[in-house]
């Protein structure tokens, strides 16, 4: 069992990682129940795949399941208000803990509901998708999507505990597994070159679900995120912004494909990482060989690492226009995460968007 502390003063918590952890849910969650009762929020797919296992593990605890439709549609005002009404009808109190059992959609929605119901109650994350296990369940960003864009309304609200059972991912669609892998590669590329070397050798085993490799990859990514979040919880110093490597480019590709199944988040991030490396090469910051290595690895995993692989044909001006809606702006300027090489990402706030548009036109 691996325990990774997220050091945030009085908001500190542990991320516990172990195969079979879900089967210990009863003892792990007992102190978060009120009386005997635990409110568990999940989605239809996760509940069908893993719900019975969780219920069995709860033993004597009574589960009150709230099961929502799967997909980004559940990160909406409508589902948020319906969920809050349901929680209030159940008499949720500030000292209660909600259990978020699902992928990033459930984690983001439940985290936000927990941030605002009764001016805030606690919550526990039990992430079930690879993406949620390595990224969204840790760090306390919660959000819903609104008409103006994705994740534009939310709160920083840290969970009290994160329970990661890598074996849960066995029932996840393989394309979703690859999508989550993009975020694992992202950590390596930000500041852990030895981890990228390891991924080049072991990435296929991580994807295939080999337990030791999968666990190691998840734990390394979580430890990386925990370190960054502990340094810059609210993305003020610029450190946490590094986690957006591949995301500004990726976001524009997701917007271009209407945030649809055409391009999953991690797929857009993989292509965005490829673009961030190429753009950095073009500015003389990074060696071509590093960009080539990154693209080769992501492609070997089955991720699109270029505009062509992501089948995006839009011109640079269109893609840059999508970036403008990104919420990570400061004084109207976008911060780009560029690289000096593998494991050497940095924030550049002075990138000229015309340069980006011209680069994207050439990158077609
Ligand atoms: N808060 C953050 O820091 C942060 C970071 C990254 C991403 N996100 C958010 O996370 C969301 C994406 O998360 P995601 O990729 O987990 O999407 P998701 O929650 O939609 O899950 C993907 C699909 O897999 C299914 N699923 C999940 N676990 C399963 C399992 N074990 N077995 C079978 N099916 C399973 C879900 O029902 C869904 O259909 C986005 O909304 C994104 O904005 C948040
Ligand atoms: Zn991401």
Give an overview of the whole structure.
By secondary structure, the chain is α/β, with parallel strands linked by helices. Helices cover 46% and strands 18% of the residues. The protein contains 13 helices and 13 strands. The strands form four sheets. Strands 1-2-9-6-5-3-4 form a seven-stranded mixed beta sheet, with helices on both faces. Strands 7-8 form a two-stranded antiparallel ribbon. Helix 4 links the parallel strand 5 and strand 6. The chain is globular, with a radius of gyration of 20 Å. It starts with a strand and ends with a helix. The structure holds nicotinamide-adenine-dinucleotide and zinc ion (ZN). The site of zinc ion (ZN) has 5 residues, from helix 10.
Number of strands: 13
- Count of runs of 4 or more consecutive helical residues: 13
What is the makeup of the main sheet?
7 strands, mixed
Order of helices and strands: EEHEHEHEHEHEEEHHHHHHHEEEEH
How would you summarize the topology of this molecule?
Elements: E1 2-6, E2 13-17, H1 25-29, E3 37-43, H2 44-58, E4 62-68, H3 77-89, E5 97-102, H4 104-116, E6 122-127, H5 130-136, E7 141-146, E8 149-156, E9 161-164, H6 174-191, H7 193-208, H8 211-231, H9 247-256, H10 265-282, H11 288-301, H12 316-323, E10 329-330, E11 333-334, E12 336-339, E13 345-348, H13 353-362
Parallel strand pairs: 2-9, 3-4, 3-5, 5-6, 6-9
Antiparallel strand pairs: 1-2, 7-8, 10-11, 12-13
Helix pairs in contact: 3-4, 5-6, 5-8, 6-7, 6-8, 6-10, 7-8, 9-10, 9-12, 10-11, 12-13
The protein binds nicotinamide-adenine-dinucleotide (NAD) and zinc ion (ZN).
